[in-house]
Design brief:
The protein is of the alpha+beta class. It has 7 helices and 22 strands.
Length: 541
């Protein structure tokens, strides 16, 4: 069979030839290089305005074309982008790219190399140094101290004497946990900007996706991520746990713990607040909140730091607007029969009470409905039960006072706040059950239980020491309506009675998502914490 003659290849057109040439030279245009020096101050001996060796210029050794070359043979490189600064550290890998130089006005071949971004070698946010990657690490003359032998990145290899610069000290900083569609900017020190959204169905939950619709935008500027004692590779911003933050929302509800719920505190200075705290600890009478007359230096409505996600606080309602509704009414005082009934209640013993994360006092507790109650509030809840019973409604407690750990006695039992945090720490983050020690699977140091944000806990659970259950003013009451957050078509008689009457006895709802959670707050407006238009009022107000 005769062979078929092959046609001669046609000559490529100029455009095709240009593309081919570009592809063949890309390896020459971009090259990785190890940073061996950087100019960060005009006092640097290589600073030169004439040679344009200015702030941010680096001395780098290309990993291929100049591997093992002495420092005297290396070149200085300017940053490619002058409007966005990210000075690399010693030992980090940068990408060198060829681009026009100032001589390009005189000759078309005029070009120079500039450095671009730092290569993400270790996937660490703090640094990505890969020292000794541009020379023979086994050569004694090149690596006399063997500092880099076995180096494995961010504080993981025990090579803390490796220089990264003049002032830089490495830290173990986790990455910000990303969701689909997010745009995130992160600094080296635990600060970030997230352009995110509500993601209610994500496998890993967060503290801002409980309300609103998926896709509602949120912008979070966060600083000082709560990372102490954590080995997690990722971090979720916490309005209460991070050192500071700005949360810009659109439909979300953020479980912020306000520094003060007292409007009078807005006129108090920080110095005055600290003095009041000192006097309180010393057992002296604290001064009036507005006696020092200074403006607040830190903003009284700012979130307290280092607190776990809190289900006893709602971001809705100021406590001072015109739609707060009727104030909690203390005119319904417990009668003599109630006072006598309190004294006849079973004694549950003495417990530690907490407020704002601190021990405040020892309290006596009694038993109501098989749950322990701070004796100081027993007459208040008995008055509610008595009035409801007259209307044919049975008010029964699910939870009253909570100690740190679960406790029980003859005829009573109670959950502990730490116990609940353990139970509700169900979200998987970085392969470790949230809030639990990877090794032991327990709260071996209590860190996570105290400082993890609420989004790690399902359902949302206050941090130990920060729930008002732990001083006895909060009560969980049976409503017969479960956890459904949407308006009910058929509300229970019990809940309808609560909405109509609880404020008359000094009780208000404080947690938007929990119909059952009521706190004794005499003088507060009925809607001061859960706004009138919130769906869980079920059109009853």
């Amino acid at each position: 069979m005769p062979r078929v003659a092959r046609s001669k290849p046609s000559n490529p057109n100029p455009q095709q030839q240009k593309a081919t040439n570009a592809q063949s030279t890309i390896g020459q245009v971009i090259e990785a290089a190890e940073v061996v020096d950087i100019i960060m101050d005009p006092s640097h001996p290589e600073w030169s305005t004439d040679q344009r060796r200015l702030m941010g210029c680096v001395l780098a050794r290309p990993l291929v074309s100049q591997f093992g070359q002495p420092i005297d043979n290396l070149q200085w490189y300017q940053p490619l982008n002058t409007n966005f600064q990210q000075p690399p550290l010693l030992g980090e890998i940068v990408l060198l790219i060829s681009a026009p130089s100032t001589s390009a006005q005189l000759k078309k071949e005029g070009s120079a190399k500039y450095y671009m971004t730092v290569v993400n070698v270790w996937n660490y946010v703090n640094h990505n140094a890969l020292p000794a990657s541009s020379y023979n690490i086994n050569a004694p003359d090149e690596n006399p101290t063997e500092n880099y032998r076995g180096f494995t990145g961010n504080s993981r290899g025990g090579f803390n004497d490796i220089p990264f610069g003049e002032t830089f000290e490495e830290k173990n900083i986790p990455r910000i946990f990303p969701y689909e569609g997010d745009i995130i900017y992160e600094g080296r020190w635990g600060q970030s900007i997230r352009f995110g959204s509500t993601v209610s169905e994500a496998a890993t939950g967060n503290s801002w996706s409980g309300d609103g619709e998926d896709g509602d935008p949120i912008t979070v500027i966060s600083n000082g991520h709560a990372t102490e004692g954590s080995d997690s590779a990722y971090h979720l911003e916490s309005v209460n746990g991070d050192a500071s933050g700005i949360w810009m929302c659109d439909g979300q509800s953020i479980p912020i713990q306000v520094a003060s719920e007292n409007a009078d505190s807005y006129a108090q200075s920080f110095a005055g607040a600290k003095e009041a705290e000192r006097l309180a600890i010393a057992g002296a009478d604290a001064p009036e909140t507005n006696t020092d007359g200074g403006a607040s230096s830190g903003g009284s409505a700012a979130a307290d730091s280092n607190k776990g996600g809190h289900a006893d606080h709602s971001s809705g309602g100021s406590g001072n607007n015109e739609d707060d509704g009727p104030a909690a009414d203390t005119t319904v005082e417990p009668d003599e029969d109630i006072q006598e009934a309190v004294e006849e209640l079973e004694d549950a013993g003495e417990f530690d009470a907490y407020r704002n994360g601190k021990f405040v006092e020892k309290i006596d507790c009694v038993v109501i409905d098989g749950k322990i109650v701070n004796k100081a509030f027993a007459d208040k809840i008995l008055s509610v039960k008595q009035a409801a019973q007259k209307d044919g409604v049975n008010i029964k407690l699910n939870s009253g006072f909570r100690p740190m750990e679960a406790a029980s006695g003859q005829g009573w039992s109670t959950s502990g706040q730490m116990t609940l945090r353990r139970k509700h720490a169900g979200t998987q983050v970085g392969g470790t059950k949230s809030g639990l020690s990877a090794a032991a699977g327990t709260y071996d140091d209590g860190f996570a239980a105290q400082k993890r944000q609420g989004g790690y806990f399902k359902p949302l659970t206050a941090g130990p020491g920060y729930s008002n259950h732990q001083n006895g003013k909060a009560f969980d009451l049976q409503t017969g309506m479960g956890r459904n957050l949407t308006p009910y078509k058929n509300t229970t008689k019990t809940y309808r009675w609560m909405v109509a009457n609880m404020h008359k006895f000094g009780f208000i709802r404080t947690v938007a998502k929990e119909r059952w959670h009521w706190e004794y707050a005499p003088g507060k407006g009925m809607f001061s914490r859960v706004p009138r238009d919130h769906g869980t009022w079920d059109n009853l107000v």
